[in-house]
Design brief:
heterodimer; A: 288 residues; mainly alpha; ABC transporter involved in vitamin B12 uptake, BtuC; two-stranded antiparallel sheet; 2 strands; 73% helix; globular; B: 237 residues; alpha/beta; Rossmann fold; six-stranded mixed sheet; four-stranded antiparallel sheet
Chain lengths: 288, 237
C-alpha cells in the first residue's frame, strides 16, 4: 500500500515537473532556442507570488497564479522583442544560448540583491495540507489539483496549436520563418507571443512549486535542470512527451526517496541518464 | 484601358562585392503574363526576391520597383503580401507540419478580398479537396505544386510571381499546371513566370524577358522571336 501511495504521489509531483518543462519545450520547438534563464523566471514568478502574498496577506496565494502568469507573459514578450529576436536572426544557435546564460546570471544576482538569500516559501493555507483518504491511501488535495491544472494546461496548449489560426501560424513559422513572411506574417511577433506564453507557463509552475517547497535566488539552476530533463526525457519538442517525462521524473524521485532518503534527486537524474543512453530521442521522440 | 502594374527601373542588386543584377528595366501591365527566362545564375530568382521583398538587407540595391505606381523596393515581404504580391516559391516550400487545407489557409491571412476562395481553389484543383486533411508534404510533387499555387491565390494578389513551377515535374503534370494557370489568368491575374522551359514559358506568356548574367539580353512580345534569337539571348553565343 505504501508503495502505491508513493507512486501516486510521484505522479502528482511529476505533473508539476511536466509544467516546469512545458515552456522550455515550446520555445525550443518553435524557434530552436534553449532558454537557459528559464529556471530564473520560474523563481522570479515564485518571488512575485510571495510579494503579492505579503501585500495582501488575507488572500489565498493560489489566486496569485493568474496575475503572475499575466505578468510573466508580458515579461516574455518584451524579452523576446528586445533581446532574443536579435540573436535568433544571427542564425547561430550559440548566440541565444549565450544571451540567455548571461541573462540567467544577471537575474539571479538581481534577486540576491533585492530579496536576499534566505529561503522563502509560500503558504497556501489549509488547502495545501488537506488530503482525502481513498481505499486506504492518503492523497493530497493540492497535488491532485495541480495534476488536473497541468493536464488542462497541456491540453489547452495542444488545442491552441492544433486547432486555432494562431496555432497554425506558430507551426508554419516553426517550419519556415522565411516563407510565412510571404503570407504577411511577421515571425518576430510570433516568437514574442510564444516566449510570452512559455514564461506564463513557467510562472504558473513557479508559483505552484513555491507552495510545495522553499526557494532561494539560486533555485533556478535546480528548476532548469528538472525542466531540461523533462523536455529531453519526453523527446525534444513533444508536449505530451514532456508531460510523461515529468511524471517519470516525479515517480523516480519519490521512489528514490523511499529507498534512500538522502538521495531522492539522484534517482531522478539516474533515470534521466539511463533513458538518455537507451533512447537518446526521448520517450515520445522519433528514433532517427 | 489596362493600367501599368509593375515597373522596374534600372534595378541593380549586389551580394557583397558580387553584382547579381546590372540595371534591369521592365514593365508589366495588369492582366498580362511575363515570362522571365534565363540560365541558372542569370539573376531571375534575385529579381523575384526583390519584387516580393525577400532581399534580406545584406544586399545593396539601386534603382526602383513600383507596384501600381508606389515604390516597393526595400519594403519587407510581410508588408508586400498585404499590398497584393504573392510568390509561388521555387521548391514549393509547403509547411510540413500543416495539412493541405491548413497550408491553403495560410494564404488567407492577408485577408484581401477577391475572386479566390477556398471553394474556388478546390474547383481549380479538385484533387486537393480529396486530400485536404493529409499532411501537405505527403502529396506528390505535382499536387504539392497545386497547394503552393492555391496558397498564393488565396491571398487574392494583384501580382502573382511563380518561380520554376515546372521544375522536377512530369510533362503531363506540367501541362495540367499550366492549364490551371490559364484559368487563373482568365480571372485577370497579372503573372510573372520564371521558367527554365523556354518553349512552355513563351506559349503561356504575352511578353518575354531573357536575363543573362544579370543583364536583359532580349525583351518583347512572346511570339516576336524565333528560336535562334532566343538561344542567342539565353546562352550569349
Amino acid at each position: 500500500m505504501d508503495w502505491i501511495e508513493t507512486i501516486i504521489n510521484g505522479v502528482l509531483l511529476g505533473a508539476l515537473y511536466g509544467l516546469l518543462g512545458l515552456g522550455l519545450a515550446l520555445v525550443f520547438g518553435v524557434m530552436r532556442v534553449v532558454n537557459l534563464a528559464h529556471g530564473e523566471f520560474i523563481v522570479m514568478a515564485a518571488y512575485a507570488g510571495a510579494l503579492l502574498a505579503a501585500l495582501m496577506p488575507g488572500v489565498n496565494p493560489l489566486l496569485w497564479v493568474l496575475p503572475v502568469a499575466v505578468l510573466a507573459f508580458g515579461a516574455g514578450y518584451v524579452l523576446q522583442a528586445v533581446l532574443v529576436n536579435r540573436t535568433v536572426k544571427s542564425g547561430d544557435p550559440l548566440t541565444p544560448l549565450l544571451l540567455t546564460f548571461g541573462l540567467a546570471v544577471v537575474l539571479r544576482n538581481l534577486m540576491v540583491e533585492v530579496f536576499g538569500t534566505d529561503p522563502r516559501a509560500l503558504d497556501g493555507g489549509a488547502f495545501t495540507r488537506a488530503g482525502v483518504d481513498f481505499l486506504g491511501l492518503r492523497i493530497g488535495l493540492f497535488p491532485l489539483a495541480v495534476l488536473v491544472l497541468a493536464a488542462v494546461m497541456f491540453a489547452a496548449l495542444q488545442w491552441l496549436l492544433a486547432r486555432t489560426e494562431w496555432g497554425r501560424i506558430v507551426r508554419a513559422t516553426s517550419d519556415n520563418a522565411r516563407v510565412v513572411r510571404l503570407m504577411g506574417v511577421r515571425p518576430n511577433r510570433v516568437y514574442n507571443t510564444v516566449m510570452g506564453l512559455a514564461l506564463a507557463f513557467a510562472a504558473v509552475a513557479g508559483v505552484l512549486l513555491a507552495l510545495r517547497s522553499s526557494f532561494t535566488p539560486y533555485s533556478g539552476v535546480e528548476r532548469l535542470l528538472i525542466a531540461f530533463e523533462v523536455v529531453i526525457l519526453g523527446g525534444l519538442g513533444s508536449f505530451w512527451g514532456a508531460f510523461a517525462g515529468g511524471i517519470a521524473l516525479g515517480v523516480a524521485q519519490l521512489v528514490g526517496q523511499k529507498l534512500d532518503s538522502n538521495a531522492a534527486a539522484l534517482y531522478a537524474h539516474l533515470l534521466f541518464f539511463v533513458v538518455l543512453v537507451i533512447r537518446p530521442t526521448g520517450l515520445a521522440g522519433r528514433s532517427s | 484601358m489596362m493600367g501599368r502594374l509593375l515597373e522596374m527601373d534600372s534595378l541593380q542588386v549586389w551580394y557583397g562585392d558580387l553584382q547579381a543584377l546590372y540595371g534591369v528595366t521592365l514593365q508589366l501591365d495588369e492582366g498580362r503574363v511575363l515570362a522571365l527566362i534565363g540560365a541558372n545564375g542569370a539573376g531571375k530568382s534575385t529579381l523575384l526576391s526583390a519584387v516580393c521583398g525577400l532581399l534580406e538587407g545584406e544586399e545593396r540595391t539601386r534603382g526602383a520597383i513600383r507596384l501600381a505606381g508606389a515604390e516597393v523596393l526595400g519594403r519587407p515581404a510581410e508588408a508586400l503580401a498585404h499590398e497584393g504580391v504573392a510568390l509561388v516559391p521555387e521548391g514549393r516550400m509547403l509547411f510540413p507540419s500543416l495539412s493541405v487545407e491548413e497550408n491553403l489557409r495560410m494564404g488567407m491571412l492577408t485577408r484581401r478580398a477577391g475572386h479566390w476562395t477556398l471553394a474556388r481553389v478546390y474547383e481549380l484543383f479538385p484533387v486537393l479537396q480529396e486530400f485536404r486533411e493529409r499532411p501537405a508534404t505527403s502529396l506528390s510533387g505535382g499536387q504539392q505544386q497545386m497547394v503552393s499555387i492555391g496558397r498564393a491565390l488565396l491571398s487574392n494578389p494583384r501580382l502573382l510571381l511563380c518561380d520554376e513551377i515546372s521544375l522536377g515535374l512530369a510533362p503531363v503534370i506540367v501541362r495540367q499546371i499550366y492549364q490551371s494557370l490559364e484559368q487563373v489568368r482568365a480571372q485577370g491575374m497579372s503573372i510573372v513566370l520564371v521558367e527554365q522551359d523556354v518553349q512552355r514559358a513563351c506559349q503561356a506568356a504575352d511578353h518575354v524577358c531573357c536575363l543573362l548574367k544579370g543583364r536583359v539580353t532580349l525583351q518583347g512580345a512572346a511570339d516576336a522571336f524565333d528560336h535562334a534569337q532566343i538561344a542567342q539571348a539565353y546562352f550569349g553565343h
